[in-house]
Design goal:
Elements (H helix, E strand, L loop, with lengths): L2 E4 H13 L4 E4 L4 E6 L3 H11 L8 E3 L3 H7 L4 H10 L4 E6 L8 H4 L4 E5 L4 H9 L3 E2 L14 H8 L5 E4 L10 E6 L2 E6 L5 H8 L3 E3 L19 E3 L10 E4 L14 E3 L6 H16 L5 E4 L8 H12 L5
Parallel strand pairs: 1-8, 4-6, 5-9, 10-11, 12-15, 13-14, 13-15
Antiparallel strand pairs: 2-3, 3-7, 4-7, 5-6, 9-10
Helix pairs in contact: 1-6
Function: Required for the formation of a threonylcarbamoyl group on adenosine at position 37 (t(6)A37) in tRNAs that read codons beginning with adenine.
GO molecular function, one term: tRNA binding
Protein name: Threonylcarbamoyl-AMP synthase
């Protein structure tokens, strides 16, 4: 079983494991990440093995400052503007990769671009001590609910890793927003912890939505899935269902739910994002075959929440 250390005591142990090519579960401001040295192909392969992740789904390389970011990617004026506005923070940029960058091809899934993020907190400190970027997808089995506490990581992956760094619940609660910077254009590849409207305001550029191929994490149609089926935009609760609620008013039949968790009783989207994955996990453990989800507005962080819910509800491979 994994050793669990508070972040105040964990840095030397975490860095030693990363340097040796091991994977370490550690907190970021978004969700807990399963981190490994991004320049070590065997270490990155351990991430895939631990998660059971498809090889064609790229990973994000996390850095500790702009100097490190510029070692691996080309930044134009637009990318620098976004970095100044949102780094460190929950924004990932997909940028042209520099030749011979040293990042393992397993991180980029063979693409000529690289997804980069500069996180806050323990993860950034560990990267600075290591002196190399880390790949760090969410610390959960592939396709399952992302983890926002050390306890959730331990329940899912504790038997497969050596160390979990515990910093309590993550403050953002959904993964980073991913945008591709292509010249003077921006494409939203995955909504997340930075609202699209804020990115457009900082960039002075309208976002194009969607991509023709998988260019970043979280773009598989079925993702973030609980074991139970998930029914979106429910207008009523059927017998035997659990309820993922939002806001102060309940849909018809809520009293019949076998279990209920409210993303935010006041309708606060930031609170809802922070609670999303933990509440899905709790409802999944209720034993209900189906989770009915009340509607969530599309504005602001609601776009990211609805994206995760839609992927969790999508048909999945058997």
């Amino acid at each position: 079983m994994a050793e669990i250390l508070p972040e105040s005591d964990a840095l030397p142990r975490a860095v030693a494991l990363l340097d040796a090519g091991a994977v370490v579960a550690m907190p970021t401001e978004t969700v807990y990440g399963l981190a490994a040295d991004a320049t070590n192909g065997e270490a990155v392969a351990r991430i895939y093995e631990t998660k059971g992740r498809p090889r064609f789904n790229p990973l994000i390389a996390h850095v500790c400052d702009m100097a490190m970011a510029e070692r691996f990617a080309e930044f134009n004026a637009l990318a620098r503007r976004l970095a100044e506005a949102f780094w460190p923070g929950p924004l990932t940029m997909v940028l042209p990769q520099k030749p011979q960058s040293g990042v393992s091809p397993l991180v980029t899934a063979g693409l000529d671009t690289i997804a980069l993020r500069w996180p806050r907190g323990f993860c950034a400190r560990a990267i600075a001590e290591l002196g190399r970027p880390v790949a760090a997808p969410s610390a959960n089995s592939s396709g399952r609910v992302s983890t926002t506490t050390a306890e959730a990581v331990d329940a899912d992956l504790g038997s497969r890793i050596e160390l979990i760094v515990d910093a309590g619940a993550t403050p953002v609660g959904v993964e980073s927003t991913i945008v591709k910077v292509d010249g003077n254009g921006l494409t939203l590849l995955r909504p997340g912890g930075v609202a699209a409207e804020d990115i457009e305001a900082a960039a002075g550029v309208r976002l194009t939505r969607g991509a023709k191929s998988i260019e970043a994490p979280g773009m598989l149609a079925s993702h973030y899935a609980p074991n139970a089926n998930l029914r979106l935009n429910a207008g009523e609760v059927a017998a035997g269902e659990a309820l993922l609620a939002f806001g102060p008013r309940r849909i018809s039949g809520a009293e019949k739910a076998v279990a209920m968790r409210n993303l935010s009783e006041t309708g606060d989207l930031r609170e809802a994002a922070a609670n999303l994955f933990s509440h899905l996990l709790e409802l999944d453990r209720s034993g209900a075959g189906t989770i009915a989800a009340e509607p969530v507005p599309e504005s602001g962080l609601g776009e990211a929440i609805n994206d995760r819910l839609a992927r969790a509800a999508a048909p999945r491979d058997s």
